[in-house]
Amino acid sequence: MKELKKLLALSMVVGLWPVAAQAVIQIRPASLQDGSVGPYTDRTNVFGFWGTSGDPEVLWTQVGIHTLPAISPAQIASAELRIPETDSLWSGDALGQVDTETWSATHIDATNDAQIEDADVSSASLGNLGVYRAPGPRNKDGGRSTSFDVTNAVLADYGALRTTFAWRLNVLWLHDTLPSPSGSLYLPTVDNTDGFFGSFDGDAATDNHGARLLITLVPEPATAGLMLLGGLGLLRRRRRSA
After folding, report:
1. Which pTM does this prediction carry?
2. How is domain 19-220 classified at the CATH fold level?
3. Which of 25, 33, 94, 242: disulfide with 98, CB 3.0–4.6 Å?
């Protein structure tokens, strides 16, 4: 009994009491699953464009496709989508569609799970994921991203037997036509290796090259019996050596 009390006290001090192991699966798009659609489809550019282009203006938008892991939906505790939101200017002054417009992320069913396609610019929405960029002055930051809770969207993909989770950037225009003059910003794609956008080491916290789908798995509890036996054994060894 004294040993059990000692183990309880020791567990609170040094963390021997059983804890849950929780894993996070990080999924980035493959090269062809990450790019821009609009005036034309660009699958391998290191820049992902969003805004407008041309005269008359045509919508540019970014699309991302993440291949889902072969796990059971019951294993998913939560899912988060992080899209780089760096305010990097590509062309024009971008005032018409960035400073005064609201851009959102939309859940879609990818036309082709292996790569983005022209049709992804207007395919039916499966639901709004939230605001990607609210109106306001441009503030360039290579490490910034916008996060969305996409747990329900990912579970819906599994329920519909889809093998990917896909999204695109949409704009909620305040105008009947696209704003003029044209202008566009860009975010780094998975093909980008510019150190301005982070460490380029795959780490979810420091690597901002391409969007990340982070699936947190349901915790798997550590075995209480093994932890208790290990702690009691430690106490016994300490008593024998005393």
Report:
1. 0.79
2. Jelly Rolls (2.60.120)
3. 94
